[in-house]
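Quick illustration, no need to memorize.
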Amino acid sequence: MSEVFEGYERQYCELSAGLSKKCTSATLLDGEQKKQKLSEIKVGLDEAESLIRKMDLEARSLQPNLKAVLLAKLREYKSDLNNLKTEVKRISSTNLNRAARDELLESGMSDAATVSADQKGRLLMSTERLNKTSDRVRDSRKTMLETEELGVSILQDLNQQRQSLLHANGTLHGVDDNIGKSKKIMTNMSRRMSRNKWIIGSIVAVLVLAIILILYFKLK
């Protein structure tokens, strides 16, 4: 799990929720106040794009198993950012003139109720988006923790296999040493047998020569 990515992710989710609320409030403003609010939103969008780029760089620098999970989450955040940009464009293009405002004021309680319902709907959408974003963060954290646990388990298995190989290598060295000692023993035994053969041969030769000499002197 990447703490750097998680930090960027947390910042983006908070920023995205804040931008959604600002978009909702911008629809209720007009004139300079609306322009100022849209300017703040655009600054926030630039910051959100910067966080997306940072998360992308961080995700691509990680191991393949974590990289795939984080890039999938990043695609969701990119889609969320595109939705915010679309909403900002819609708000920017909707600029009521004074006549339209007068008409809205004269429309009475019916139109006021419609505006209130529309505002309430946007607030509900912002709250729902924030809840979904929080759920995605929790799911992403859970997935990364599970991936980290899997990686630790794999590393432990590899370490056990390494220890087994090292033990087998030590056993082979011990067998080689025993074989070397056995060869030395066999070589020494072979030498002793050869030496004993020469000694026995010499004794037999001396005995044969002695018998021949004894027979020679007796017959003479």
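The CA atoms of residues 134 and 168 lie 51 Å apart.
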